[in-house]
Request: fold
Amino acid sequence: MTGRRRLGLVAAAATLLSAAPLYAIFDTWTWLLQAMLAVGLVAGAAVLARTLRFPVWAQAAGMVAVLLLTLTWMFPSGEELLALIPGPGTFAHFGELFTEAGNDTRSYGVPVPDREGLLFLSTLGIGGVAVVVDLLTVVARRPALAGLPMLAIYSVPVAVYVDSVPVVPFIVGATGFLWLLVADNVDRVRRFGRRFTGDGRDVDVWEPSPLAAAGRRLAVAGVAVAVLLPLIVPGLDTGLLNRLTQVGTGPGGNGTGSGGNGRINLVASLSGFLKTTAVTDYVKVRTSEPDPFYLRFGIADVLTEGGFSNRTPTGQPISRGALTDPRDDQGSNGGDYESYRADVEITNDFAQALAPVYSSPVDLDGLDGPWSYDPSAGVVYSNRTTTRGQKYSFDYVRAKYTPAQLRRAEQLPREDSRVQQLASTPEDPKVEDLVRRLTRGQDTEYDKVLALYEYFSKDNGFTYSLQAPDVDGASAISSFLDNKAGYCQQYAAALAWMVREAGIPARVAFGFTRGTKDGDAYVLTNRNAHAWTEVYFDGFGWIPFDATPAADVVGSTRSAWAPDNDRVEEPTASASATAAPGATSSAAAGAADRPDRDQDAGLAGTTSTTTGSGFPTGALIAVAVAALLIALLLVPALRRVLVRRRRHAATEPVTVTAAAASPGGAPPGGAPAVTVTTESVRARADAHAAWDELVDTMLDYQVTVDPTETPRHTAQRLIREAELKATPAADAAVLLGSAEERARYARSPLRGDGLTEALTMVRKGLAETSDKRTRLRAVLLPPSVMLRWRLAVGDTSSRWMGALSRMRDSAIRFSPRRLLANRSAR
Amino acid sequence: MTTPTWDAPGGPLTNDQFRSASDAIIANIEQVIEGKGATVRLALAVLLAEGHLLIEDVPGVGKTMLAKALARSIDCSVRRIQFTPDLLPSDVTGVSVYNQETRDFEFKPGAVFANLVVGDEINRASPKTQSALLECMEERQVTVDGTTYELQSPFMVIATQNPIEMEGTYPLPEAQRDRFTARIAMGYPDPRAELAMLSGRAAVNPLDSLRPVADAALIRRLIATVRDVHAADAVQQYAIALVTATREAPEIRLGASPRSTLQLLRTAKAVAALEGRDYVLPDDLQALAVPVLAHRIIPTADAQLNRRTTDTIVAEIVHRLPLPHDRNRSPYDTRAQGDGGLYESRGR
Reply:
């Protein structure tokens, strides 16, 4: 009984430990106090019920009742009897709390303050888990199942923190679970009585049992599988197969699937949009702005060795006024703001957790679900829903700058946090040199950026190519600067990097180009997906620069401060004169015709390139994988063949001079002193090699090998069991047996050839008398090889385990826990 | 009569000479004992291994016949002792009697002063008398009244006995049993051999017509040849492993002695030579384990209660013990090669 009582307490403690992940949800620790109280009372009720020897159902009912009373007492409605006995009003209050909690989950971002509804929900959940864990552990004696409700608690932060979940609480929870398992097993073993060693010493509770070796081996194998499996299973983000096949299948999945998951890789999804063969309408946007710039939905502002990547946006819910108006910003140097309104309709094919908007939205409505705004990134995002089928409209302001205005931008000091964060780059001397060379003699920030921007001109050999590989890392960006062929994401990433190298904050923005004009609306498809660079100018904010050649991007547009590099007829300098870039810039002229200009031709071009590169790559990979599998399958067979060849080479006679040695043995009487010559040594080695090969052949054909048998007996049994009698194989087996026995025991070994032929004959004989399955197995998966590998693996693992447990033993010697366990075991 | 010492048995024979000599002896004995080739060979092997033979079986299966046939095939001195309950030790070893003429004690040699001593029904004599054989069998000498007399070479005691469950017998003392190199059982002849026996013995006792085909000198040379047979290290290890296994087997109270290890290997050499080999095989040891070891060991009371004979216990040990050779490892044995061999690592 004490064992069960202790187990119940361990279950309660494990439940509390497994609730640790909730700390990431709440702002304060009130929830933990309440949870401890609830779990402690539930556990107390369980102990009491067991002490009074209640039946199982009464134990369960008692725990539930105590949980109910606890909740009533903690979250009173004022209608209880004695503040403890719940009345109808209490349940109504509980219902309200539920509703409140539902509202809170929608309106609050994590970490949440102490909202009563949420606290009620967490206390109820943890208390419920405590009841279930207790029942599973103590009553059903299935503590392993208790991991499921515990895991349910952990799933709460996982659902909220879509991007990364803190690891430590998981470890705490897992420790609780393991504790539960260990306690249960210790209790199980104790039920049998005390453990003794062979020499009668009392075995300590925590002393590892020799039987535990199998368990440890299983655990190691399980962990290895758990680590390795996600690498090869497609569908997980980091999947190896996914990486391999990303060209073929990845982007489609990234672009349209992944429901509420905001964890998309913007870089990968962009290349997916552009390289998908099919053209899908994503967005229809109507705006009052005559010449709109790009619709944007995301940024990547983290530049590491792995290239540009996006971080999780953080901000306030839009419903609570997260949107700010840049015109109110006192620090801003201004520029000319004009206010517009846009309506966006998103199709069912475009499901992302980031909503496309024009930059600087000041008011947004119509979006279903909880959406937040990250002011620094200018991104509208949601942790729960997607843009799928959404219709919304927003007001935004568009600032127009002239180069002259931008030239006034002050240089940000080195120690400015934005410079620290957003102008950091990986080490690359080549890029550093290039940037130093290009910005030499440029005084203002704007001129530096412009110089870098103009570097991406066709004149410098840059060409647009969708076939360029995805930007996967810093080295790929750097190599784009060498081979100078890429598409928007390479251009954007490279420019952003170079600007950062010049000490100016820059980032890559993702969105759509202007798209195709359809009536008064623009239709944006996956082909319009685009990436460009945004540069931060002090006092102006983030100013877009699109370095991608405008001629190659459908719906591309240019601004006054960042004119098209490749427009030869209009010198870039002249554009700076006008304040209204929409009217004069090259983009304005092009915008009218470019969106619907040779759309089909562009499509056809991209289609052919995609099919030209995508399909064969997929097929190639499939073939490669198949070939790899076949090769893997053939490894044991190959190994067997190699071993056999080596042994055959050993058994081939070198000389035939000694072939005349009398087979009956040297004359016993006149036996000379043993002469150890190289030849006899060699003959012995030959016979041993032949024998090893014979033993392996026997293993392959499933004739058992008995270490107590002499070679002579083995050969005879082989003949008997494999029914080789009166075949040439029988004589061959006898020859091999006598060769081996003389090599081992006689003064002079049997010399002469014939061992290789004998081996071949025995193998042939065995193959003839065994069934098809055995034959196939002997060739494809030779048991001799597999056995050796298996044993090697087992041997290595048990050696490791032995070393580990020795280490643990020596560690346990100093463990205070051992003393405790000793005391309780007495 | 010059008595060649045991340690100078004469030069070894060549393979063919050995073969013809041994074949002649075996063929000679088989004229009398039909259908018992293996037993006959084993008896000869014990002779060539310089050992003593104990033939144990129920009455009337030809124990004495085998002993006499072996003795007669060799032209050497043969003495026969019929062990009876009233036989005295001095009858076996000899006695000093007072000679009136020389007025001195004179030694009258006992029955053991011969090349071959056939002790019939040895377990019918009292242990006191049986013990008289102890010295002569091991040390090949007799000490009477303080004087030690050397025995001739070759010297072999062939004793027969009934199984000790039979009435009127005294079980051999342990020390006495250990002196016998091998204990063999005759077994009943198969029907065809029995029929041949019936027709052969109708007129005359075939034993009478048996002529010697070898003499003591030839036997000495045969023995010298056997001594020269090669026993590889692995074989010697295996012999030790076998004997050690009897000492460690849980069913055995008293295991085999180191003397038995020596005799096992010697007999194996003889068997190998009889088969025309100049090297010993583990097969020889396996075949000899039961005849050489089984009569020396004493099973525990439990094993006796379970009606486990020493023969089956030894046979199981043979069946269980791996050969001490790296190449005869079990495929499941992954220990590093050359870590002292199976013999040394056994029992860890």
